[in-house]
Design goal:
54% helix; 2 domains; two-stranded antiparallel ribbon; globular; Rossmann fold; 5-stranded parallel sheet; 17 helices; alpha/beta
């Protein structure tokens, strides 16, 4: 089953994207922002949420609670896209009013709350069109530099389940002259529980099997670190003569920036460290978004528009009653929304930036764009 997801290509009509396209044709429907309530009352959930956020920002919690009750009346975690996103933002507003944002975010995170199988995670990730494009482009750039040497070392910030790498392993096995020796350093956050490194270790086992299948010499170096900016050069086990590629898929957005930590912040610290590694290529895929304002109301409004579009996209891709999609929305997207809305300072870990901001930050670290 992993092959059907992880080894899929654009010409596989029976892959996840093909199945999702069929689901869209059968079940897709456009959600509406306005909801009709009792006595034919028209309720605009987006406007109501923004009004509630304004009341919270001004300290008028009495009005905010009443507005929140109305949002609750017309929103639902299992309704259409507009109802589901309204429900998620209502949870965040409720936590902010109650002052429980710091407790809500970790307790609602995916690893602690909703058990989704490895297959489901991979299916959801690979079915999203932007994820498929991201993986295709990143692997193409890494494969291009891999032609320069007999050994390729990929350093992956936020490797998770390694869904990006089976297709690269397959392509490397077909390289003229034979595959290079592949080493992957997988960097990930520690997971809750007694085995904080178990997920990343399992990723290594899975990738090892793919390398054995395709005849690619392989070595895996797992690194579990809570503070990615504290990783040292020695931890990477760099070898003279190897081609080094650093990859990061939208994971640096969770690092604190200069608004909290000043000039020596984790976000710039990791970029400066990657520059110190001096890789042949750094492929940094970013989540281009504007909801990182230190001002609550601006951040709330931008986040609402951003996640409304995401929920609409999910509704178009997956069937209306897809339990995997519902779990993903509640666990991953719901917890991110709660963090954006209910948390401030160091407790707010969702800190995306626009691609122009990321470009400026990356250039300051000493990187240059790859020539076209």
């Amino acid at each position: 089953m992993f092959d059907k997801v992880l080894m899929c290509t654009d010409d596989h009509a029976d892959g996840p994207s093909g199945a999702c396209k069929q689901q869209k044709e059968r079940n897709g429907r456009k959600s509406r922002s306005n909801k009709r309530g009792n006595d034919n009352e028209i309720v605009d959930l987006q406007s109501l949420l923004i009004s509630c956020a304004k009341s919270v920002a001004s300290g008028d919690y009495g009005a905010a609670v009443e507005q929140l009750k109305k949002v609750r009346q017309y929103s639902s975690p299992v309704g259409d896209a507009n109802q589901r996103v309204a429900h998620a933002f209502a949870d965040g507003l409720e936590a902010r009013i109650a002052g429980t944002g710091a407790q809500l975010y970790p307790s609602s995170s995916y690893h602690n709350k909703i058990p989704i199988s490895e297959m489901q995670k991979s299916h959801l990730s690979s079915s999203l069109p932007f994820m498929r494009i991201l993986i295709f482009f990143a692997n193409k750039m890494i494969y291009k530099v891999a032609s320069r040497g007999a050994s390729l070392h990929v350093i992956d910030y936020g490797i998770l389940h390694g869904i990006q790498w089976p297709t690269l392993i397959r392509d490397l096995s077909q390289r003229p002259g034979g595959p290079p020796r592949l080493r992957i350093t997988g960097i990930e956050l520690p997971q809750p529980g007694f085995r904080p490194s178990q997920m990343i270790v399992n990723t290594g086992y899975r990738l090892t099997k793919y390398c054995e299948r395709f005849g690619v010499p392989f070595e895996y170096n797992p690194i579990t670190a809570k503070r990615w900016e504290a990783i040292k050069i020695d931890d990477l086990k760099l070898t003279r003569g190897e081609v080094v590629a650093v990859n990061c898929n939208a994971r640096l957005k969770s690092l604190l920036d200069e608004t909290v930590c000043g000039a020596n912040n984790p976000k710039d610290g990791v970029l400066n460290f990657i520059q110190e590694v001096n890789p042949h290529i750094f492929v940094h895929s970013v989540l281009s978004a504007s909801h990182n304002s230190p001002f609550f109301l601006n951040r709330f409004r931008e986040a609402l528009f951003f996640y409304s579009a995401l929920f609409d996209m999910f509704e178009a891709i997956f069937s209306n009653n897809d339990s995997q999609r519902l779990n993903f929305e509640q666990a991953f997207m719901g917890s991110s929304i709660a963090n954006i809305v209910a948390c401030e300072g160091k407790e707010r870990l969702e800190r995306p930036e626009t691609y122009k901001q990321w470009q400026s930050r990356t250039m300051r670290a000493g990187f240059k764009p790859v020539p076209k």
